[in-house]
Amino acid sequence: MLDLESYLRRIEWVGPLAPDLATLTGLIQAHLCAIPFENLDVLLGRRISLDLGDIQRKLIGGRRGGYCFEQATLFDAVLQAIGFRTSCHLARVVLAAPRHLSSRTHLFVLVDLPEGRFVADPGFGGPAARGPVLLADIGASPATGTNHWFSFADGAWVLHGRDGATETELWVTELATDYPIDADVSNHFVSTHPASIFTTAIMMNRFTPDGRVSVMNRNVTLWRAGESQTWELADRRALRHLLAERFGIDLPEVESLTASGIPDWS
């Protein structure tokens, strides 16, 4: 059973809890700033459970982060407890591979509101939208100022993202009827298969009110007020320090973490 009060304290939410667009927008923004995207448990050889109780113990009680299957499962439970009408769906991430080579390994939440259907996507990491995205066929690139939008083609919805002047297709979904067992299967692949990037690379992201901090293996990028700063982690002790300083996570175990995708750090 969801402990809604503990979740709200975790994301420091003190606003209203009406099942409306304003509340949905505020909750996503607060969630993204409070609960990081990270895959450290996979690299530490730990099983990723999608049981709601286990997710709460990790992301809320343990003040950890997680990836899409954990984050979307938790956020969906929160929205339903407030009174939103929701469903969870799988998508194919197409950032690095075309649709026909991408498996359905991303989970997001679809929310039905009087204004339309909106995608809430708290577990997509750095490319994620910082608010709900209307599921409507915008088609061509919209006006400057909109960083995420959808188009519809060949029976599927395509999420687009804009980063500066660069526009990218992020993920694709047919909005199939997905059950928890479907998420379990995809989660098992993501967290155990040697071909999954989650089993070979460190990936972390945390949003801040004026930017975000992202980690890909040893590379750290800090965005603040439209400017970026990058540096390289020297070793695992530097990773532990970064976790505490930028992500609010105290995890001594990372000093023995291995990741085969990091040169000279295996």
Automatic annotation (TrEMBL):
Molecular function as annotated in GO: acetyltransferase activity
Signal sequence extent: none
Protein name: Arylamine N-acetyltransferase
Protein family: Belongs to the arylamine N-acetyltransferase family.
InterPro entries with a match to the protein in the record: Arylamine_N-AcTrfase, Papain-like_cys_pep_sf
Organism: Acidisoma silvae
